[in-house]
Amino acid sequence: MPRLRSVPVYSWNPRRNKLPVLRRFQVGPRVKNFGDLLGPVVVSGILKERGVGPALRRPGSGTVMAVGSVMHKAHDGDIVWGTGVNGKVALSLHDFTRIDVRAVRGPRTRAWLRENKGIEAPAIYGDPALLLPRLFPRLGRSAATKRHTLAVVPNLNELGRFRSHPDFVDPRRPLWEVLERIASSEVVVGSSLHAVVIGEALGIPVGLIASSAEPPFKYQDYFEGTGRTESEYAMFDDFDAAHAHATSIRADSYAPLDGWSPEPLLGAFPIDRWVRA
């Protein structure tokens, strides 16, 4: 697990092996799905922005959980900042009873915590990956220089569904390669949640294809966490419909995040995990 200034920050990046006999031993290459690697990247950007250096280290316990549908990976004492629930993971696999929730991805995750774990989370919403353009201006520069008409980015579990498309972007490619490929595209289409998040953060028209491998929970949670109702976002059944939607949007007047402010999420950042008050 990555550690930033001595503090563990969670990212889902297991090893996978095609040979069943080896899977139990956690050997083989890591998955490296770009969206699941973003938590430590965002956290490191905030620490740099706030000038947190080695002299300000604060040792202690508890992992910081940020980007991803990884609530089921939390343990007692962990700090949740922008994490979401994964709709396909059973309640029984969420074994925590006491976590420190500073923010969640959206209102559906907040309601899930209250109803299933008796945990009251603040009404502070947002996927922390939305902060990437602010923290890393290079993404904005890439977005200003369009080199591609389209990026087709699938969910990790649907690579075969889109691999033959000429604008296919493999989400397992090096992280910054994927981010800059998305940023430099005029339109983003696919079933990857974080392709949608990054696209919207950069003002790029997006078309979300409903995933055949993922329940809609995390997508709905994200959209509603940015202030939208069900009538204000759409998931399409196929590529053609999603692409038609995205290309119909006028980029110069596109403002999908008008109903969301980053300030509450930034204000809820657990800086106290690194710096004593």
Numbering strands along the chain, what is their spatial order in the largest sheet? 3-4-5
Q: Estimate the strand proportion.
A: 5-15%
Distance between the termini: 26 Å
Q: What integer value in Å does the Rg equal?
A: 18 Å
Shape: globular
How does the major sheet shape up?
A: 3 strands, parallel
Count all strands and give the number.
8
- String of helices and strands: EEHHEEEHHHEHHEHEHHH
Uncertain residue segments: none
Question: Could you say how many structural domains there are in total?
Answer: 2
- Tally of DSSP helical segments: 11
Helix content: 25-40%
Global structural class: alpha/beta
Mean of pLDDT? 92
Write the layout of secondary structure elements.
Blueprint: E1 3-4, E2 7-8, H1 20-23, H2 38-49, E3 64-65, E4 79-83, E5 100-104, H3 107-117, H4 132-135, H5 137-144, E6 148-152, H6 159-162, H7 175-183, E7 185-190, H8 193-201, E8 206-208, H9 217-225, H10 239-247, H11 263-267
Parallel strand pairs: 3-4, 4-5, 6-7, 7-8
Antiparallel strand pairs: 1-2
Helix pairs in contact: 5-7
Can you characterise this structure?
The protein has 2 domains: 3-128 and 264-273, no CATH class; 130-253, no CATH class. It is globular, with a radius of gyration of 18 Å. Strand 1 (3-4) and strand 2 (7-8) form a beta hairpin. Helix 5 crosses helix 7. It is built from 11 helices and 8 strands. The protein is of the alpha/beta class and 277 residues long.
